[in-house]
């Protein structure tokens, strides 16, 4: 059910899906729920919905309004999401577990059908935007540690207290609590809410005007890209390299969003989960899954925050599939997949021979994480070894051996993150698994 989300790209949702069963067209000033919520501007979109900044006139605050497509399968998915979000909010009354809070939900009828709407606290930019903002150079290890703690707090709560697997963790689905640019934050910038639909923006103008506007915006973006490229090429000619920016002053607190694909651990849905680059090996081979799939994705995110690059970026080849390339990349980084895992999945025979070797990609070049960090990303050796000690156990092919979020939170790599967090720590019983290994390695 998981699609590689397009909300991360700077493209917009297009006009095609604004039809019966699809998105609901919204204009600033549009009222929802009997006038309680007034649409302000679009915040984002996904395959299932558009999300708008709205003003809650009853509570006099800004909220994020997620308006689902109207066809039956989207309504069904939204009902499932609401049920999950309610369970999440119920167990976190003080809203401190780094997961987005649902505030309200209702139905809204429009020309394209009936849309389930969810009201959330407003959050800011995604981690993907943060990575882009810093020009894919990584966000600095102290910042990585801080962000990792937030994600882990959220995951620990989800897994241990709620019994949920997120199944679609990726940088787009973790949002900062505020925006990178303070001017874009409605609260910090003192944005005056629109309370009535502006004149001249009435019926009939919407789609045509917005299509024109989008085309204009696209052309402007294309021009901006060209001049950016020219500038960077010019920079190269002059021996200048674009430097990362300063992240000082950006609030790095963040929360996990998008529970559209989340599932209860005891009621898993069949089929493929997770977005490609963040997908765990057991999902690819069809060997069943549980909480550790989120831990795998978490490790991929941590790597990406540190380096600015995705950890795995599989491609189809002439003689192999994307799945096979993905498995090959994993084994080049982590060594051979244990035979037990490689050959027991429902899809194993598609990829592996009976010795547990890939059928169609034979020669693998081992390039472990610490070497990769040093050779390709120019990390100093101590930083590379420490990060590798943190990440390697999370990328264990055997899901049960991956440390839990709770165990990760106690890893020494996170303890000097320079920020204070309220962490509930409980005794860790199972030192046989991830944490034991983690601590032994860290003490090396
Ligand atoms: P997907 O295709 O990823 O499953 P979806 O339709 O289920 O998407 P979400 O991922 O929940 O929708 O939200 C879409 C986008 O809207 C996000 O990527 C983000 O940019 C924005 N967004 C969602 N929730 C909030 C929020 N609470 N505050 C600010 N922006 C938000
Ligand atoms: Mg999403």
**Computed CA radius of gyration, to the nearest angstrom:** 23 Å
The residue ranges in which pLDDT falls below 50 over 5 or more consecutive positions are 1-9, 201-209, 230-239, 419-444
List the secondary-structure elements in sequence, H or E: EEEEHEEHHEEHEEHHHHHHHHHH
Biggest sheet layout = 6 strands, antiparallel
Description:
The protein has a domain at 127-180 and 250-438: Transferase(Phosphotransferase) domain 1 (Transferase(Phosphotransferase), domain 1, Orthogonal Bundle), CATH 1.10.510.10. It has 14 helices and ten strands. The protein has helices at 72-90, 127-133, 141-162, 206-237, 281-285, 292-307, 322-334, 339-344, 348-351, 369-375, 381-391, 405-409, 412-415, 434-442, and strands at 31-32, 37-45, 49-56, 61-68, 102-110, 113-121, 164-165, 174-176, 254-256, 263-264. It has a six-stranded antiparallel β-sheet with strand order 1-2-3-4-6-5, with helices on one face. A two-stranded antiparallel ribbon has the order 7-10. Strands 8-9 form a two-stranded antiparallel sheet. The longest helix has 32 residues, at 206-237. It is globular, with a radius of gyration of 23 Å. The chain starts with 30 loop residues before the first strand and ends with a helix. The model is unreliable at 1-9, 201-209, 230-239 and 419-444 (pLDDT under 50). The site of magnesium ion has 6 residues, from loops.
């Amino acid at each position: 059910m998981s699609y590689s989300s397009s909300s991360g790209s700077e493209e917009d949702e297009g006009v095609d899906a604004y039809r019966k069963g699809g998105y609901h067209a919204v204009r600033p000033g549009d009222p929802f729920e009997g006038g309680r919520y007034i649409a302000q501007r679009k915040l984002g979109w996904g395959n299932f919905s558009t999300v708008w900044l709205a003003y809650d006139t009853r509570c006099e605050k800004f909220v994020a309004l997620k308006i689902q497509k109207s066809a039956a399968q989207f309504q069904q998915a939204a009902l499932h999401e609401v049920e999950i979000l309610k369970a999440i909010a119920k167990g976190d009354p003080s809203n401190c577990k780094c997961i987005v809070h649902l505030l309200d939900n209702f139905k809204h009828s429009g020309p394209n059908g009936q849309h389930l709407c969810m009201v959330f606290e407003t959050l800011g930019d995604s981690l993907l935007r943060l990575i882009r903002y810093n020009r894919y150079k990584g966000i600095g290890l102290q910042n990585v540690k801080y962000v990792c703690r937030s994600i882990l707090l959220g995951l620990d709560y989800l897994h241990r207290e709620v019994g949920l697997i997120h199944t679609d963790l990726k940088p787009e689905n973790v949002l900062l609590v505020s925006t990178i640019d303070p001017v874009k934050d409605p609260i910090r910038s003192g944005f005056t809410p629109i309370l009535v639909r502006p004149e001249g923006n009435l019926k009939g103008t919407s789609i045509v005007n917005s299509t024109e506007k989008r085309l204009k915006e696209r052309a402007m973006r294309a021009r901006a890209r060209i001049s950016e490229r020219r500038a960077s090429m010019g920079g190269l000619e002059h021996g200048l390299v674009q430097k990362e920016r300063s992240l000082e002053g950006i609030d790095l607190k963040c929360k996990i969003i998008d529970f559209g694909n989340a599932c209860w651990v005891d009621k898993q849905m069949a089929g493929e989960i997770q977005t490609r680059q963040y997908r765990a090996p057991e999902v690819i081979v069809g060997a069943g899954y549980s909480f550790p799939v989120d831990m795998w994705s978490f490790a991929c995110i941590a790597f990406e925050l540190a380096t600015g690059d995705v950890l795995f970026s599989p491609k189809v080849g002439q003689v192999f599939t994307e799945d096979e390339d993905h498995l090959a990349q994993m084994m080049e980084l982590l060594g051979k997949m244990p035979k037990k895992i490689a050959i027991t999945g429902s899809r194993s025979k598609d990829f592996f021979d009976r010795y547990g070797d890939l059928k169609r990609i034979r020669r693998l070049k081992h390039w472990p994480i610490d070497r990769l960090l040093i050779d390709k990303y120019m990390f100093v050796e101590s930083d590379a070894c420490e990060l590798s000690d943190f990440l390697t156990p999370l990328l264990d092919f055997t899901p049960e051996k991956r440390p839990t979020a709770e165990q990760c939170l106690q890893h020494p790599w996170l303890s000097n993150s320079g920020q204070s967090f309220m962490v509930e720590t409980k005794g860790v019983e199972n030192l046989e698994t991830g944490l034991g290994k983690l601590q032994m390695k860290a003490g090396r």
